Records
---
Amino acid sequence: TVEFNNVHSVSEMPEDDDAKHSSYPRMFLEPQEKKRSVKALVVKRAKKTCSCTPAKVKDCVFSLLPVLQWLPKYKLKEYLLGDIMSGVIVGILLVPQSIAYSLLAGQEPIYGLYTSFFASIIYFIFGTSRHISVGIFGVLCLMVGQVVDREVQRAGYDLEPAALRAHADAVNTTISVVNQTSHHPFCDKSCYAITVGATMTFIAGVYQVAMGFFQVGFVSVYLSDSLLSGFVTGASFTILTSQAKYLLGLDIPRSSGIGSFVTTWISIFRNIHKTNFCDLITSLLCFLVLIPTKELNEHFKSRLKAPIPVELAVIVVATLASHFGKLRETYGSSVAGHIPTGFLPPRPPDWNLIPNVALDALPIAIIGFAITVSLSEMFAKKHGYTVKANQEMYAIGFCNIIPSFFHCFTTSAALAKTLVKESTGCRTQVSGLLTALVILLVLLVIAPLFYSLQKCVLAVITIVNLRGALRKFKDLPKMWHLSKVDTVIWLVTMASSALISTEIGLLVGVCFSMLCVIFRTQRPEAPLLGWVAESETYESLSAYKNLQTKPGIVVFRFEAPLYYINKECFKSTLYKQTGVNPVWVKAAKKKAAKRMLREKEVNSGGKLTSISVELVSEPLGFHTIVIDCCAMQFLDTAGIRALKEVCKDYREIEVQVLLAQCNPSVRSSLIRGEFFKEGEDHLLFHSVHQAVDFALGAQEHNRSCASK
């Protein structure tokens, strides 16, 4: 039982005169009894989980397949038009981006189309967000491409760009992908690359489904907005670097691993004299068309019913120009090559590759589900419906596991396409199904027509789509004004992701952001408080003017949990703010007493005389310290010990320490830590104002007793 004088000590406060001066009635707070033990609770949950009833089976099926819930309620007349428009437009935009991002992932263009097609269908079945567009995401493609390059090199394939292949060679490659395993001698570099990508995609999907099953979505809370933004911006520099060689038409190997950003640019400048001017001019012309049109789309997005599909137009025009101008034959421009129609038979991942890529798949899985969940929750809140974060992890996991059997690589939600989907009238997940139909049309009919498309055009499309991430530099002054710590986290994550590697950059960002949290609790704000006149409120003296202080009373607030990291900071800051270190005061008293004793002994001829220690020191400027504990979320054993030491040290120099506004967790920790011992008078109060009134009443009572 916690006894309050609002609040009194946990141990019985003795009924003496010192306890009777308070004007506040005594209160008793009894903690709630736990109705069930932990064992009973675990048994109950286990029975509930393991039970199997028709109703529970139905709930599980409907929970796992949300399409069975919302599709029967689909309002055809109200939703269909918006879903058709948004689905078709996003599909048109996805085609060129899927082809372009395939290069980033180290894959042939056809596999990017496969990935976008299967991801759209599977999310339609498993997803709960009505608006997000699931497909290829540039940062994940970069991370996949880096692992693919590493494994291709380990397998002994030549990393130098292969000579341009004829149509017959491409057909033979396609046959080898279908019929041979990754270790078969007839499986070429392209075949092995998609095997690595699909295997890593499978493992990333397994991780995501496991996170959903074990409900460990809390991992995403360690990826703050500033960290994710810095990571995406840093990865954007790496993406830009990896595509620069295509802009110049250079035939150089792709760098991977730590420091690939620097080594790639060194390689580019060493080979700058080999620039293909046909590719360079084509790249400049594409930039001149794409950037202004994209800016117009963004500027007039409120007036346009749908964005101008400029990327598709550029691809069509560039393909026609390359074909009829015979740029490949005349100038040696690198082209996309043959893109087969139809689908390849499914094939399982290469189980022998799993040990090589299992660790690489983990950050891909975390980034993928973090972006998907955050986007789905953001748009659900905006449009007034709810999404299930756990189901979103299942959905994005299945969007990776199932397509990995169909020669696909990793997917997640993508912000740019989601914004387009929302702005063009999307109402439900049916929009994603229509997007898949558009891609299916390309796969079955149109894909071979892109044979003469220059790779530099695809690189330009990829780089232009990085504008949003690179524009984050414009927000730095505003971010610095709002939070300097978040800005530093952004800069550290961005720099490490760009200059070291994407995976290490993510790890550095997470570790650095956690260190920032620790540092902020290690040296938190700890102001003295003053009284707001005609109220019961106490605020920081350093933050507000016209606050009053009570004579002889110091009010101190420590704005952080009190634990082993900051216990010394708590004590040193308290001593500094009050201007009194009790350890030093006691030492000074003892030293002065010894000196006076020696002087008295000399003056009295060797006869010792008792000296009162109180007479050898000057009186302090206060008699009570009130510690406002409202910002202390928790205490550990070191924090409890620090409070005990502070109370004991100040009591020895006749200064009383009162605790106010302790939450139940802190009070429980104090009880378990035996803070309230028999014979020791520790006081707790509901509010600072009550603690101050108590101290003033006690001082007045002591004065009246002394005068008598």
Note: The CA atoms of residues 600 and 608 lie 7 Å apart.
---
Amino acid sequence: RKNTKRVPSFRKLLRTSQIKLDNKLKNKQYKQKSAAKKYRKEQKKLREAVRDAISRKPFPLEECKKKQVAKKWEEKEEEDALPLDMMDEDDLKLMEDLAQKASFLTRDLSSNEPVHIKKRKHESVIEKYEKVPRRLQTEPEKELIHLLPIKDKSGIIPQAVEKPVLNVAHDEEEDAEDMEEEEDFNEEPLPVLTPEEMAAQRRQKLQERKMHIAALASAILSEPDSNIKKLKELRAMLMEQDPNVAVIVRKLVMVSLMEIFKDIAPSYKIRPLTEVEKATKVKKETQKLREFEEGLVSQYKFYLENLEQTIKDWKQRKLKKSNVISLKAYKGLAEVAVKCLCELLVALPHFNFHNNIIVLIVPLMNDPSKMISELCVEAVKKLFKQDKLGYASLGVVKVISGLVRGRNYDVRPEVLKVFLHLRIKEVELQKDSEDIAPKKKFMTYKEKRKNLSRMQRKWKKAEEKLERELLEAEASESKEKKLKLHTETLNIVFVTYFRILKKAQKSPLLPAVLEGLAKFAHLINVEFFDDLLIVLHSLIASGDLSYRESLHCILSAFHILSGQGDVLNIDPMKFYTHLYKTLFSLHAGGTNEDIGIVLQCLDVMFAKRRKQVSQQRALAFLKRLSILALHVLPNSSVGILATNRVFMQTFPRMDLLLDNESQGSGIYLPELDEPEHCNAQNTALWELHLLQ
């Protein structure tokens, strides 16, 4: 049984979408064009073979006998032409003879007829039929458009009309002209442009591309629902191939797309539709919205993949096969890609693929390139500062913790310092819950009296009471959710800090860890306080720390003790002694910058713990700070004098150091490192006279 192609019924045609029909037509036309192209290539090869044969035999050609010609053309020719060295002498002579006749080049070579076929009248009908060239596949088949059928007594009569076909012959002529132009182009050298002309040409191209980008972007922004397909067209420009403008165009498209997505992305996360939802019939508006959301998410995903690939290629020093962009220019492209990702990280924390952006950005915080690492660090800081609920912060903290552990604590200190910008404070918690709680404006008493009747006022009062209760419930729910997120985030932060304290005590991350502990010490569980203070003291006693690191240790210890730690019965005398002993490490050189941390330590150690500090200790520190004020730069001296003034105001009987007469027994021992036993009450602040 033959496999005949059935004509589709009218019902089936109705069900088939217009897009599918268009695609079928395009595929058909494409096949026809490719077949025509292939045929033209074969023709060209044959012409070249003939030219080659002519050029090899310059001597005059002999006339061939008609019998030989007729005999030769009756034989079946092979599809592929034989090479010249495999031909018989008779065949070669025949080719040479035909080459002299212009008609051989101009006529249709698919025909097997010799030139002089018209002279042969005694051929049979069958032979004539056989000589007629077969119809090539390049001719377009006639397509039918099925119309509404007509019904009469005999039955249903299907109606159809021929579809107008594009003029393929015209296309063939154009292609032939193009081929001829290419041949001419290969023969003639390119016109040499001056640098000025080249620059002008480049400017013109760039202006055209800019206008195109602007037109597409404005069309998308004006009607995102209708023009979502233009987003794809704009994204395709990320693959700009013109080497003169490729770098700038790609950068412009990256930034334009970033701004478009920031503008048109909705304020909620788009989830994929379930099979049941897809099968359900919906309104036109809903269907349009679904199509828009689906298109937006897919284009956003492809855009992020493009940015990721650009950064990866630059990191791996890879070039594309086309080599349109140099390796040097790739760095600039990668920087723009990172900027776009940073902007999207901060602007769209609620939208799809935010976790994917976090996974891309966090490792780049540890990048050798200072510019890229700073961009990423700043973006993460901004995200922490503006994140009220804490979902995004939790995601970033998890990835940073994994990165630090995965790199075996070999990361830049800036990566850990971003934890200091987390919005986790008891004070801010209440304020943030107020920010999150939806604000409802209720009618005032005057407005009610003016606009409502007595009965309406009564109903309104009951309604407002109910609304207030609902709002309070919502706020408390979000507050509980927030507390839960903050607790989880802090747990991960402390686990990271404690791991470094335990396993990597000589790591450059230690100052960042101690600084972080100092900030969040009041939120640490009381159970850890004792162990933590022992670890901090052992770090100071080891002598492996730099001066600044030891100051951070002291600051962390006193922050712990000033918060929940004040219930613990711990005497931090070791920390006081260490600070007193090392105060003279400060001078007008490099350590002058550490004065700020020293003054913070003194504030926590004395001003906030004045009831636990003895007078002897306060006097000793006051005297030593006055001596230190002579050794440091003027700005530091001012800070120290301000601290001395606080000492005078906070502790009673400090003014005895302004008196020349000594009090009590013993003499002052300035070189002794024990503040309790240096007899500071027997000296005077003569340094103030020099500092005047």
Note: The radius of gyration is 44 Å.
---
Amino acid sequence: PPPLSIQEVYFKNLSKQKQREVMEKNGNNQKLRVCVATCNRADYSKLAPIMFGIKAEPQFFELDVVVLGSHLIDDYGNTYRMIEQDDFDIHTRLHTIVRGEDEAAMVESVGLALVKLPDVLNRLKPDIVIVHGDRFDALALATSAALMNIRILHIEGGEVSGTIDDSIRHAITKLAHYHVCCTRSAEQHLIAMCEDHDRILLAGCPSYDKLLSAKNKDYMSVIRMWLGEDVKTRDYIVALQHPVTTDIKHSIKMFELTLDALISFNKRTLVLFPNVDAGDKEMVRVMRKKGIEHHPNFRAVKHVPFDQFIQLVAHAGCMIGNSSCGVREVGAFGTPVINLGTRQTGRETGENVLHVRDADTQDKILHALQLQFGKQYPCSKIYGDGNAVPRILKFLKSIDLKEPLQKKFCFPPVKDNISQDIDHILETQSALAVDLGGTNLRVAIVSMKGEIVKKYTQLNPKTYEDRLELILKMCVEAASEAVNVNCRILGVGISTGGRVNPREGIVLHSTKLIQEWSSVDLRTPISDALHLPVWVDNDGNCAALAERKFGHGKGVENFVTLITGTGIGGGIVHQHELIHGSSFCAAELGHIVVSLDGPECLCGSQGCIEAYASGIALQREAKKLHDEDLLLVEGMSMKNEEVVSAAHLIQAAKLGNTKADSILRTAGTALGLGVVNILHTVNPSLVILSGVLASHYVNAVKDVIHQQALSSVKSVDVVVSNLADPALLGAASLVLDYTTRRIY
């Protein structure tokens, strides 16, 4: 017979005196009838040490073993045999897996298990059912036991990973009466989920009892059996990757990239088949398409016994994939791990784990392999100290079957009469608006009615890192202040110069006014920091949205907004919707060319409206006049250190400077010609001039339209915006208009 494990020896040698003490303490001479249900190879590795412990104490416990799920499927190695090899009597075998390749197959499998389990539980009549983890099979088991008034002990509750497993795990937690968790964080999560602290045991992971006692001196025979005679320790890879059921298509693509990277890395690799999940068959097809089963560097297997698997990962050069085993058990040996994708996001890990969250290229995975392969890290005991099973058995013995079955929840204190609090009822729905200008960075809390409740202004930093850090800091500060001013923030809207992909929230490239602002993902870091939806758009488009919601454009089907400020921009609303264009370049109105030999524009072209009519263009002309002593007239004065600006040019024109007046008339004409081109192209019923220069240009624009436009468009209304801050209001409109819409 095989040698006894340390746990078996421990329980065999438990003194009769100790047993009597526990019996007397519990005041219960009745044996506890325990049903352990195992669904797959992974959960059996956690449940087996507990089963050995229960079996070794027949004076306290009666053990019934139920096997279901992928244990009974040939494609996954018929792993029920290892349970038989461990000398456990299997009371019931339940075929519960419905074959299929999509999410529906998992649902049908749960349904099939729910149909079959009641009969089994009726026959066994267990006092308690032990359920492990977060598999859909386990959810069916917990649901059945809860509805049949059978106590449930849940192993590994309170943990966080990052897929549908989280939802299943927490659902089982709410059904379970008792909880065995592995880490202090998991314990705190269970308490936060209102579970009774007295029914939570921080024991550690049962598999660690076996891991930390694994002293197989003949590990080389295990390695050679699975990987070949010529393989050395620390010179091979173990790969174990499962489909992510919330994003099957992406996870299959990631698996394909992983195999490509492993082929290129050119090391002997043991690849285990994935779990039974939606998408698993497609992953197997990918393996076969790549020829993995016949590749000289690869060994593809359906199952490896846990004792041998321990030896394989303990002496591997690296483990790669998205299995919880990689971030949990492998840390006990300090073996390097590459965790791919989001399946284990949120798990506590040791320093041996390198996360590749966005494993979207072969090169990225290959680089991770080069960084990790062959390293040796300190052993981690985050998930256990090797003494989980004795704690669990003691916990089981303490269960009083005379206690009421109905579980109690420990809810935290709630403020009295919150539903009658008038401030809570009248909380203002609002948006955080961010305006990224060439000079200033502004953040504001804007109400649904367009009221700027609170505004923050800072100089816009010159570097990407400083700018993003300041945006986050200002947004966090504003979001905190929103509570004090009784505003509920629905999301964040960002108005920025440059070309923007609003679907992805990315600044594709910016004007020269904002440095280091190309290919910038604004949505992700801000959304992650604030846990709010984020919208991003070009400042001209935001100005048009502001007019549509709060200004002259309200209720108008087709209109155009032109911003006249440091630069010239705008937005086009057609049939009540903003136009972005095929490459998000629509409404770059400042770069309509009105003269082939005009002044050079910042975009590199010549004769653009912006080169004539923007604040920068007027400043340029003002400097020329000033350098020639032709700017200042009677009634004007400038300090020595004062910078010449467009405002000085406008002041000079008002005071009778004919040259300044001529420059302004030329700028107004250029803007007017651009508007005529717009009228002939999109035929709006309204043109709104916005920005600090709008009032200086409106009459000139109307004159050019009267002189140059086709008669059919001369009746268009041209007005000056009455909005005090269109950039911030437009950014807020991104949120307030689209928060409740499904498509943007």
Note: The chain has four domains: 31-205+388-398, 212-372, 422-551+730-743, 555-722.
